[in-house]
Amino acid sequence: MDSLRESATFDRTTIAAIQRAARTGVYDIRGGGAKRAVPHFDDLVFLGASMSRYPLEGYRESCGTDVVLGGRHASSPLHLDIPVTIAGMSFGALSGPAKEAIGRGASEAGTSTTTGDGGMTDEERGHSSHLVYQYLPSRYGMNPDHLRAADAIEIVLGQGAKPGGGGMLLGQKITDRVAGMRTLPPGIDQRSACRHPDWTGPDDLAIKIGELREITDWTKPIYVKVGASRPFYDVQLAVKAGADVVVVDGMQGGTAATQDVFIEHVGIPTLAALPEAVRALQEMGVHREVQLIVSGGVRGGADLAKCLALGADAVAIGTAALIALGDNDPGLDAEYRALGSAAGYYDDWQDGRDPAGITTQDPALAARLDPIEGGRRLANFLRVMTMEAQTIARACGKAHVQHLEPEDLAALTIEAAAMARIPLAGTNWIPGVSF
Amino acid sequence: MGTVIDLSVTSVRSLNADLHALPAGATDSIRVLRPDGRHSLAAGLDRPVTVEIDGHAGYYCAGMNQLATVSVHGNVGVGVAENMMSGRVHVHGDASQSAGATAHGGLLVIDGNASARCGISMKGADIVVGGDAGHMSAFMAQAGRLVICGDAGDALGDSIYEARIYVRGSVASLGADCVQKEMSPSHLAELSLLLAAAGRAEDPSEFRRYGSARTLYHFHSDNAY
Predict the structure, then answer these.
(1) Which of A51, A216, A335, B177 could join A220 via S-S bond, C-beta 3.0 to 4.6 A?
(2) Which of A214, A259, A263, A336 to mutate to test the interface with B (most CBs of B within 10 A)?
(3) What whole-number distance in Å separates Cα of residue B190 and Cα of residue B121?
(4) Domains annotated on chain B, with CATH
(5) Residue A29 is nearest to which of B97, B101, B221, comparing CB atoms?
(6) B99-120, pLDDT tens digit by residue?
(7) A39-326+369-420 homologous superfamily
(8) What's the pLDDT tens digit per position in B39-88?
(9) If you compute the radius of gyration of chain A from its CA atoms, what whole number of angstroms results?
């Protein structure tokens, strides 16, 4: 075997993809985000305190974590205890117990969760202390009573996994309840529109935001979420249209069901999008006045701290939250293998047979997830993320995680240095900025 | 004699705030003067009030309406009665794009013409257009009825689900998966009721019916390893 040489161009994954396409005649649909290696937060490190920086005492001296979102125009902005929010994931894509668990976990940790395509469920509202209501192109389940019952509104223009794409929920997950919420026949493959039905372009979006503010009497913060493709311009246009908060989702951000080719080849990495979004806000003089939430491959406290240091106000997690609930649990490995996958690899979130009971509408599978236990695990994970970020912030001498700044960072690769506009470690060189 | 609000001296914010503050079950009548194309007029109403708007309205007039009866004695901009849940909205002039978009219930009547994407993604409402409707009308329409007494533009009913379309005049072209369907006695009866509700005098027998061929309902794709 040592004499065999795998092709870098036609590696085993590529060969398997060609063989699968030749065998089935259909393209691959899966869940999750981009799997390919792209420049990411691992390519940054914190410098920590030194002779010229004064650290805070680990876990004893105060290091704040709270954040206020949406105070630009809304009379009732969100006050969150931690700068980690839960990204929009629909009931339909996720089971009822999974949505309840997310609500429980987020509420216990003092943060917000978000609806998704298909509308708001009573369970979700009931278990979420802070609930963001997504306003999507499909408007499935869109109800003005829910708009008024929400704590914030997120106008979704795109997702990092598929900027420019709509959504899909395959028929095996369209139960009677899901179909009823979306006004569709049960069992059909459901397409979610990629364009909003009643506005086109940023000037119209400003009027649309005005309507949503009128309907909710200017109380609710209004977020605008974009998939990362042209973040500088998208962020500026969202701000101009009146957004209180802008959400930028990079290509590692997950999806419930999208073509693999879309996930892997459309959009830009989160690390590349975040500095552009910050630059857009700074150029308009609204950095910190309009809050920035970043998502797409955020996995723990180090990623959180790096996002904050680069200028984000908060992050959103989706895939990491599902893993915290029990997705890809090694204890389910035999069941994953029976589905042609394995623990650590499972991404068939689209097909409704999730043995963890998370990405399914099968009542028997969904019943496997205890929402109380799931909520506890998620709350634990959120607390650990926050404590990890505090640990780093204290080491950098910051009394609040929001005080982290680009100066606290160094880049390990030229690509990361160029994208994040952070000097390559051991140098003062930022490719494209300094020489 | 109901309340009269003159938008040359009162803001849209004040108008909507007053309408939202009415007690549940209120049946007040409000007349709005000099709208002058302002946006979001009477948006988000959820009381069985009557609102008469004397003049042209901008975008999203009567947006997300619940229970209220709103009449516009003029033309309306984009998205009149978008996502309406119930009640009645009557435009006595023409309507711009996306009239009745995603509306779940209630009746939208447009005496004049409707521009592109009328009834886009409608989810159960009824829409009656006295004149012509523009291209891509009833795009991805899920449920409800769209009646076009004049002509329909290109790509009518593209990607339609279970909504039903009735057209009296010509159809420039049908969109993907939209086909002409048989007009049964029950459909004629349904159409008669819709026309009567809209105050129209057209003969239902002059209309043709369109709906989904349902060939796009299944994506024919999975991870069939």
Answers:
(1) A216
(2) A214
(3) 21
(4) 3-212 (2.160.20.60)
(5) B221
(6) 999 999 999 999 999 999 999 9
(7) Aldolase class I (3.20.20.70)
(8) 999 999 999 999 999 999 999 999 999 999 999 999 999 999 999 999 99
(9) 21
